[in-house]
Design a protein that fits this description.
By secondary structure, this protein is an alpha/beta fold. It is 13% helix and 19% strand. It is built from 8 helices and 19 strands. A 4-stranded antiparallel sheet has the order 1-2-3-4, with helices on one face. Strands 5-7-10-13 form a 4-stranded parallel sheet, with no helix packed on it. The chain has a 4-stranded mixed sheet with strand order 17-16-15-19. The protein starts with a helix and ends in an 8-residue tail after the last strand.
């Protein structure tokens, strides 16, 4: 069994060095270093390997790779029984041999990508430069004023923007050993009437279906975590199985008891994978991918109504709505792509301007954006209209990747 595990480690190492190792097998069949030339693949034990024909293996070849450290008395072999070039997930059967005794194991291996995580974020309080959440006062002064925004309100120097992030030790990547800056303290500020807003897991949240990781401190109160729980908060290094209460170093804001199935632990900060490569490709393969402002209204029958007027028809797969339906007043009725990913990317061809009233779409009488804004009207002293304040921000303009979600979903998916 140790030899089999060595074989699994060998294949994983190859895939880490080259994520495309198992792709384009016919093109790579004769190249040195390809899977077809791998001494641990093919032969008698290759029954079920999906690349047998691509590599031209015959049933008379027995191929075992020796473990040199064991004096070539132990060997391993593996067969790839399933592979997706979209998600790069692979199913493998690995066998180990020692003194003519063979043991085998089955494994599923995959790269670490966004869809693997139930909750995956840089996890921080509201953006210090967000004028909608923290609007400036008319005078441009005070806790809501000018360049202060979140930084001044939440204990920073008042410099605003990126400078505020560094001043507040915004990310745990900045809290290296020797960093003496204190953690942010919100309770006293909130009590003083200064609204420091940050995401919080509450008592009705039960995250039991997958691992949870945050690059920052997780704030939770009364929450149930039912799987692996990791954080890059350096204080979480103090958590120890020998001290059951030491998990409190990994989470903050627990006015109600928080429950864990597994002991929380520290983990180095994760780099967010490229959404254009991992998430978008996964959505196009098995989930749903849309472009530009997209609205989804969930229904209790396991379906969703989708409006996405700027989506590229070539990128919307069958089952995610036709372009005619996605751009109609009624929207496209789509069966929930359960356990899959819905991804919204930018539509750069759609321009860069404030969206007209109703331009995103929705049910009759409830179309977004609200108001009466019409970009075709020449702005002058007599032009009057109403518009949603948030839609005046460049981040909400036409062509941007914004997803508007409402309703109750029956099922599980990642957005």
């Amino acid at each position: 069994m140790a030899a089999a595990r060595s074989g699994l480690a060998d294949l994983v190492a190859r895939l880490r060095l080259d994520p495309t190792y198992l792709e384009n097998m016919k093109a790579n069949a004769d190249s040195a270093g390809s899977y077809c030339e791998n001494p641990a693949a093919g032969g008698l034990a290759a029954e079920g390997d999906i690349f047998v024909e691509d590599c031209g293996w015959t049933a008379t070849e027995a191929r075992w790779a020796p473990i040199e450290a064991g004096g070539a008395k132990e060997f391993y072999h593996y067969a790839v029984t399933g592979y997706s070039a979209v998600t790069r997930n692979a199913d493998v059967l690995v066998s180990g041999k020692s003194q003519n005794v063979i043991r085998s194991l089955k494994a599923s291996i995959a790269p670490e990508t966004t869809p693997m995580w139930l909750y995956f974020s840089d996890y921080e309080l509201a953006d210090p430069t967000d004028p909608t959440t923290y609007p400036p006062t008319p005078s441009g002064q005070g806790y809501y004023g000018g360049t202060q925004l979140t930084s001044g309100a939440c204990g920073g120097s008042g410099a605003g923007g990126e400078a505020a992030k560094e001043d507040l030790a915004y990310s745990w990547e900045l809290r290296q050993p020797g960093n003496t800056k204190p953690k942010r303290v919100y309770a006293t500020l909130t009590a003083a009437g200064i609204p420091c807003k940050e995401p919080t897991f509450e008592r009705w949240d039960a995250l039991v279906g997958g691992p949870v990781h945050s690059n920052d401190t997780i704030r939770a109160s009364g929450t149930q975590f039912g799987a692996e729980f990791t954080t890059s908060d350096l204080d979480c290094k103090k958590a120890s199985l020998a001290e059951p209460d030491s998990w409190q170093n990994c989470v903050t804001g627990q006015s109600r008891p928080v429950s864990f199935t597994e002991m929380p632990k520290h983990r180095a900060a994760l780099a967010l994978p490229s959404v254009e490569s991992a998430a978008a490709e996964s959505a196009k393969g098995t989930g749903c991918a849309y472009q530009g402002p997209t609205r989804i209204v969930f229904a209790a029958d396991g379906k969703m109504r989708v409006w996405s007027k700027q989506s590229d028809p070539a990128l919307v797969r069958s089952g995610c709505g036709s372009i005619d339906d996605l751009t109609s007043d009624e929207g496209a009725l789509v069966v929930l792509p359960e356990h899959e990913l819905v991804f919204v990317g930018e539509a750069p061809w759609a321009g860069d301007h404030q969206i007209a009233a109703g331009g995103i779409g929705g049910p009759d009488g409830q179309r977004l954006p609200l108001g009466s804004y019409d970009p075709s009207l020449a702005p002058n002293a007599s032009t009057k209209y109403t518009a949603e304040r948030a839609m005046m921000r460049p981040e909400q303009y036409s062509g941007k990747a914004n997803l508007y979600v409402e309703g109750r979903a029956l099922g599980q998916l990642t957005l």
